[in-house]
Specification:
The protein is mostly helical. The protein has two helices and no strands.
């Protein structure tokens, strides 16, 4: 019984640590992406860039440009 409780406690601690680390890494990626988007917006003189939308005409979609810029910055 004690071993089971200890195992469950360690599992919860591990899961919390994993979630914390995942959130930290995700935040870094988001910050990098936002910098790239801002640089691209200034360079190409965009007035507005939306990260979430229901529909985007492909001629206005800059996702590929952002991904290429992120990959080039590595």
């Amino acid at each position: 019984m004690d071993q089971d409780r200890e195992l469950q406690r360690k599992r919860r601690e591990f899961q919390e640590d994993l979630n914390t680390r995942k959130n930290e890494e995700l935040q870094q990626v988001i910050e990098r992406a936002n910098k790239v988007v801002k640089t691209l917006a200034e360079a190409e003189k965009y007035d507005l860039i939306l990260q979430d939308s229901v529909y985007v005409n492909p001629k206005h979609d800059i996702t590929d440009k952002v991904i290429k810029a992120l990959n080039a910055a590595r």
